[in-house]
Design goal:
The chain is α+β, with helices and mostly antiparallel strands. It folds into three domains: about 40 residues, no CATH class; about 100 residues, Tetrahydropterin Synthase, Chain A; about 80 residues, no CATH class. About 60% of the residues lie in helices and about 20% in strands. It contains eight helices and eight strands; from the N terminus they run H-E-E-E-E-E-E-E-H-H-H-H-E-H-H-H. The strands form three sheets. Strands 3-2-5 form a three-stranded antiparallel beta sheet. A hairpin with a 2-residue loop joins strand 2 and strand 3. Helix 3 runs antiparallel to helix 5. The longest helix is centred in the first third of the chain and has 49 residues. The chain is rod-shaped, with a radius of gyration of 50 Å. The relative contact order is 0.07.
């Protein structure tokens, strides 16, 4: 009986040991599986942070441990995570609208001027290293340059010489943004807003100018007509018969208008004898 009890205890111990081994095996398998998944996840994360693809219009400025290394792109770029860092820079032309600026011209007229500028990055490393934010810096510089250039001109120059103003602003911006690796290709003044009083004054000036031209043209026409009349009088005075024909032509023109009253002109040669007779009496 004692031997039987000992055998039962041994069997129970063996069963417990086998169950513990199975449990430990399952835990180890689970740990190995989780470790494998973790390694795969870390590998995918490493590839995601290490592999970059840049389109044709972008370049990547690479920094190695904080120091500038190279400009790469377009295409596939492989980085070392934590050691290398890349900043993307677009090489496409940027269209930037300059907000309306309050400007006082040289002849003390207050106007509002706005413009648009076109520029692009030519050297990505300078655009990243030389200036903190080249878009914001270019915007602020364009506003101050627009106010400065327009403030040096009179109102008539702003309205009639836009091409010169555009070229002047473009040259100044291009020269000042060159250390940032930026090329300003074009500047266009969009609109010049004038005060209502100035608009009315300019309308009156334009109206007076048109009246002046109309009067000059009318006077020139009168002068040319007087020369022609003088030439006609000289031709008619050379032959009295031509004057009679002119009288008849005038009567014909009057008759075509269906007038009830006809004025018949008489030559002075016919009336002169009667006038002399009256004077003698």
């Amino acid at each position: 009986m004692y031997a039987a009890m000992t055998s039962d205890k041994d069997n129970e111990a063996d069963g417990a040991f086998s169950e513990a081994c199975k449990t430990r095996g399952k835990v180890m398998e689970f740990g190995i599986g989780m470790g494998t998944l973790l390694l795969i996840g870390l590998g995918l994360l490493f590839l995601w942070s290490a592999i970059k693809i840049l389109p044709e219009y972008e370049r990547g400025v690479i920094f190695f441990l904080g120091r500038f290394q190279a400009v790469k792109g377009p295409g596939l770029i492989v980085l070392i995570p934590g050691i290398q860092k890349m900043i993307k820079v677009s090489l496409r032309t940027v269209t930037m609208d300059v907000p309306p600026q309050e400007v006082i011209t040289r002849d003390n007229v207050s106007v509002r001027v706005n413009a648009v500028i076109y520029f692009r990055v030519m050297m990505p490393e300078k655009a990243v290293i030389a200036v903190e934010n080249f878009l914001y810096a270019t915007s602020q510089l364009s506003q101050t340059t627009l106010r400065s250039v327009c403030g040096q001109r009179e109102l008539d120059e702003l309205l009639t010489e836009r091409e010169k103003i555009n070229k002047s602003i473009q040259e100044i911006l291009d020269r000042q943004t060159d250390p940032w690796g930026i090329k300003v290709s074009l500047v266009e003044v969009k609109a010049i807003d004038l005060p209502e009083e100035m608009k009315r004054a300019m309308a009156k000036q334009a109206e007076a100018e048109r009246e002046k031209r109309a009067k000059i043209i009318h006077a020139e026409g009168e002068l040319m007509a007087s020369y022609k009349i003088l030439e006609a009088a000289n031709l008619l005075s050379q032959n009295p018969v031509s004057l009679q024909l002119r009288y008849l032509q005038t009567l014909t023109e009057i008759a075509t208008e269906k007038n009830s009253t006809i004025i018949f002109p008489l030559p002075m040669d016919i009336i002169k004898p009667f006038l002399k007779a009256m004077k003698t009496e």
